[in-house]
Amino acid sequence: MFAASAADDATAGSWPFRRHVTPSGPTPPPRIRLRGLHQAFPAGQTSGTRLVLTQATYQLQRWLDWLDANPSVVVLGDYAAASPAQAREAFAQRGPWARIAVEAVPPRGPDEAAGVEPSDPFEPLRVAFERGTWPLHAGTWPGDR
User: Fold this and answer.
1) How far, in Å, CA of 62 to CA of 78, rounded?
2) Which residues contact 130 (CB under 8 A, 6 or more apart)?
3) CB atoms near residue 40 (< 10 Å)
4) 77-102: per-residue pLDDT in tens?
5) Cα 8–72–17 angle (5° rounding)?
6) Under 8 Å CB-to-CB from 128, ≥6 apart: which residues?
7) What is the pLDDT confidence band of residue 26, given thresholds at 50, 70 and 90?
8) How far apart are the first and last CA of the chain?
9) What percentage of the chain exceeds 90 in pLDDT?
10) Cα 20 off chain centre by
């Protein structure tokens, strides 16, 4: 995922469920594209509760901290399929968004904007979280496979 001189990362949907989301190793790629960035911030919780792991503030701060240690890396996040509420949060430029250049781009087709990697083992967990359901059975955590 992070090999060679440029990297395309489509794992944003699993960030709330993973300990490490930034590249590891001594030499990161010079450019990283985060596809489906909106999926890193699922909002399917009920009763006005939103877990910290699903908040843009927490997830983006993890990347900003990593970028402080790797200032030569350029990261581009694809937020084209963000919900209106997510887009408002980004364009308000509060919290970690204040350190991120947010630019409007022309809309793309639904297939391109989705940014879901079909082989992502965390996708069922992300979808369940978005919908507020939990269809997984004991022993079926994506990392247990």
Assistant:
1) 17
2) 42, 43, 44
3) 27
4) 888 888 888 888 888 988 888 998 88
5) 45
6) 134, 135, 136
7) confident
8) 19
9) 12
10) 12
Partnered with residue 7 across adjacent β-strands are 32
Cβ(41)–Cβ(67) under 8 Å? no
**DSSP states of 53-84:** GGSHHHHHHHHHHHHHH-TT-EEEE--TT--H
- Residue carrying the six token digits 């793309």: 108
pTM above 0.85, yes or no: no
Q: Decide: helix, strand or coil at residue 112.
A: helix
- Take residue 4 and report the two structure tokens written for it: 């060679």
Contacts of 145 (CB under 8 A, 6+ apart): 121
Q: What is the pLDDT of residues 28-60, one digit of tens each?
A: 889 998 888 888 888 766 666 667 778 888 889
Q: For residue 55, how many other CB atoms are within 10 A of its CB?
A: 19
| Beta bridge pairs of residue 33 | 8, 76
Which two structure tokens, joined as six digits, stand for 17?
């469920």
The pair phi, psi for residue 76, each rounded to 5°, is: -115, 120
Note whether 14 and 117 are within 8 A (CB). Answer: no
